[in-house]
Amino acid sequence: MDASADPYSPYDGGGDCIPLRELHKRGTHYTMTNGGNINSSTHLLDLLDEPIPGVGTYDDFHTIDWVREKCKDRERHRRINSKKKESAWEMTKSLYDAWSGWLVVTLTGLASGALAGLIDIAADWMTDLKEGICLSALWFNHEQCCWGSNETTFEERDKCPQWKTWAELIIGQAEGPGSYIMNYIMYIFWALSFAFLAVSLVKVFAPYACGSGIPEIKTILSGFIIRGYLGKWTLMIKTITLVLAVASGLSLGKEGPLVHVACCCGNIFSYLFPKYSTNEAKKREVLSAASAAGVSVAFGAPIGGVLFSLEEVSYYFPLKTLWRSFFAALVAAFVLRSINPFGNSRLVLFYVEYHTPWYLFELLPFILLGVFGGLWGAFFIRANIAWCRRRKSTKFGKYPVLEVIVVAAITAVIAFPNPYTRLNTSELIKELFTDCGPLESSSLCDYRNDMNASKIVDDIPDRPAGTGVYSAIWQLCLALIFKIIMTVFTFGIKVPSGLFIPSMAIGAIAGRIVGIAVEQLAYYHHDWFIFKEWCEVGADCITPGLYAMVGAAACLGGVTRMTVSLVVIVFELTGGLEYIVPLMAAVMTSKWVGDAFGREGIYEAHIRLNGYPFLDAKEEFTHTTLAADVMRPRRSDPPLAVLTQDNMTVEDIENLINETSYNGFPVIMSKESQRLVGFALRRDLTIAIESARKKQEGIVGSSRVCFAQHTPSLPAESPRPLKLRSILDMSPFTVTDHTPMEIVVDIFRKLGLRQCLVTHNGIVLGIITKKNILEHLEQLKQHVEPLAPPWHYNKKRYPPSYGPDGKPRPRLNNVQLKPIAEEREETEEEVHLLNSTTL
């Protein structure tokens, strides 16, 4: 985020705009002059010997200034390097500063791996608690309880005397209608109890612990401040309630929230190191590494986690952050592997390996699964956003506890009769991914065996489906419909809820059904030309589990619009290099189909729904508006005015601050010249004046405030002046009023600006904030109509081609803007120039 490295650096003394073709002649180290012809270096703050405490910090729900933060970090780095040769202590401090980045990501990886292991173990135990309990060891889940039993059989390996269902404990019956009803009631009871406890803890202790957390993390990484979202209370409550939410059986996963948990760890550990605790931009480098660690432990995919952080969540990702993200993901995966929460010496529950290669013909069903994934993603995004918007706009959203209880009750009542919906979603995906071998007892592997064929352990030939397979297909179809409906209503409720696992489950169900269909087609019609060349009688040609894996990747890609990171994650799940091509084909198809209905993924859609100030780098700006069309104030707003360099008193500035809610104010030389000097933030002005009143004698309301380098001569009886040059941004980014908005948007995206001043011949005209750009983009989407034919321009439904002043109306890429209603009053993110002088 080096300002000098960006191709757009529009301010060059007095507000003149540097032509882009001249930039390469300037070099990276040139001086910039303000409107008062006073030379200043490119660093933003002319620091005092004793910096004012609090200056340079940010309020809640504000955007950081990336350029200022990077300049602060460079200043700190220069100061440390200049002192490291003075003594051994300074050299030690320099080494500590250099290694603090690696230390903080190491601690983050250790904590993320440990918490992920704890969550996995606790969630498995509480999920099995809905069905029964282990009498020999209460802390064992169902599988662990029967590990040491000598009375289990191959056909009924999940039954042992040590494990008792609730029906056996309460009414003493293991079979029959009474046992089924009692287990049904206890399943619903535990599901409702877990859901109620989870939503209650979230509502009372940490409201930020709900949801996936990825939309907010993307917004935070883009520079937005949300105090408490990554705090210790959020971490504690999210860890506990995530276990409860998963155990309740709701159609959600723990993978997305694990990214939030890891980022909480990174945020907390960053406060141990001054390098990161005092610099918001540097802190976001740690959060990028933490998000990689979160995906690493969620899927057992360290490389996929790094790519996920790079592709999906990070806003600023320099090369050193890539290395540290990789190291954090490595440490987190190592810790999780050491804990071994699933007892299979793997990082994930549904790790599988296939032994049959794929064939060229199979690309067709793989692409069809990609089409299904794209359609599912488009449907889910629209349906879920519509439901969340309705939740926000109706009374139903005021009762989050009731909503969670209702959703949990409906889920439990419908899920119990179907064995595939009763299963934990991760267990379901594992069963759908697994290839049928001689040791599998699932109904999905109930094939009719050919008694004359020789059995091979790793390569069982395709066989005709038995009654169990057909029964399982019907149950899977019902489970697919159930998952699709319930996931729409579950994602967004006030409990921790991830979307990765439900989306993968939907795709895995669809893929397994398609895989079985293709397998049976190849068995009964092996003489068809599409099978004749490569699928012989008695050969193992089709692997239904592979179709489930491809379907899972396609559906997850359709919802999130991930590509590279998703393919790598699924590849790391399966450990098969030869299946990358089918995965790539399905994921790209799902993205293309989903983009045909809308380019937003589910996380971007929720960011827009919540109104977060996030400029998506993937969105293209294709219009031809100018900076003057977007800047504030508008023509209908009050006349322009600004802070002057040395003509205002403390009382004048305090009155201006009290009467407005704007985030900052430009400073000009005088009301006559109106040439730009710099930019002062509202928060810095408030803190500096309060600090001066406490620490400096003689500062009163009538004291003259001076932003210039030299204090002007004052009468002898005048009170002591207040110099505030140290808080002044001497080189604010400026553009001219004729700068295309395409360039302005690019500047905001690449440099992470909060605001940009608009000038004309060095005279300040207005300001553009990130919020103004977002509103402008939204208006372009909502208020644009196709141009009418020339002979229709005079019809009333179209505005005339010329305005009342006789000038042509603006046109945008062969479209004409509707007249936009009077805009509402600006909020704190916008800055107005308050002057009575009309330009």
TrEMBL record:
A GO molecular function held by the record: ATP binding
Enumerate the PROSITE patterns for this protein.
CBS (PS51371)
All copies of domain CBS, residue ranges:
631-695, 728-787
Q: Which UniProt keywords apply?
A: Antiport, ATP-binding, CBS domain, Cell membrane, Chloride, Endosome, Glycoprotein, Ion transport, Lysosome, Membrane, Nucleotide-binding, Repeat, Transmembrane, Transmembrane helix, Transport
User: What's the chief localization of this chain?
Assistant: membrane
Q: Which Pfam families match?
A: CBS, Voltage_CLC
Region (Disordered) residue ranges read 794-813, 820-839
- Give its localization: Cell membrane; Early endosome membrane; Late endosome membrane; Lysosome membrane
Topology within the bilayer: Multi-pass membrane protein
Entry-linked Gene3D superfamilies: 3.90.1280.20, Clc chloride channel
Transmembrane residue ranges: 99-123, 187-209, 229-250, 257-274, 286-310, 359-381, 401-420, 472-493, 505-526, 546-571
Family, per entry? Belongs to the chloride channel (TC 2.A.49) family. ClC-3/CLCN3 subfamily.
Q: Can you say what this protein is called?
A: Chloride channel protein
Question: From what organism does this protein derive?
Answer: Apteryx mantelli
Q: Quick one: which gene encodes this?
A: CLCN3
